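Dear H.,

Thanks for agreeing to be a second pair of eyes. The structure we're designing against is below in token form, covering all 105 positions.
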């Protein structure tokens, strides 16, 4: 059995707002540095379940950033971490930190 790749799952299937056909967004962003979205309105939602310890770690990270003078919410912290992990994966492939982390039992 073959599952669809991420680019197939998240590709645009309908026309753009101006009625033009959808473009491959990956071509538009190829070679650009990956950055978190920051404080903007987010129209997409994803639910992630975490353990109590992971939630405490996330909150402690947020509080550490606050002590460093950065007021961020958990969502912004998670989006920043995702951007970092995906940029590292794109740059280093199988040598990236996320690959090593996910290979751990």
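And this is the sequence the design step returned. I haven't edited it by hand at all.
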């Amino acid at each position: 059995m073959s599952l669809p790749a991420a680019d197939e799952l998240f590709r645009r299937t309908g026309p753009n707002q101006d009625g033009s056909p959808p473009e491959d967004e990956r071509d538009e962003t190829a070679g650009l540095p990956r950055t978190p979205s920051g404080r903007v309105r987010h129209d997409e939602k994803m639910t992630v379940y975490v353990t109590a310890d992971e939630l405490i770690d996330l909150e402690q990270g947020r509080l550490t950033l606050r002590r460093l003078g950065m007021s961020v919410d958990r969502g912004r912290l998670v989006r920043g971490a995702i951007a970092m992990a995906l940029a590292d994966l794109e740059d280093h492939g199988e040598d990236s930190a996320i690959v090593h982390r996910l290979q751990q039992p």
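Two observations from my side: DSSP finds five helices and no strands in the chain. Residues 74-92 form the longest helix (19 residues).

Warmly,
E.
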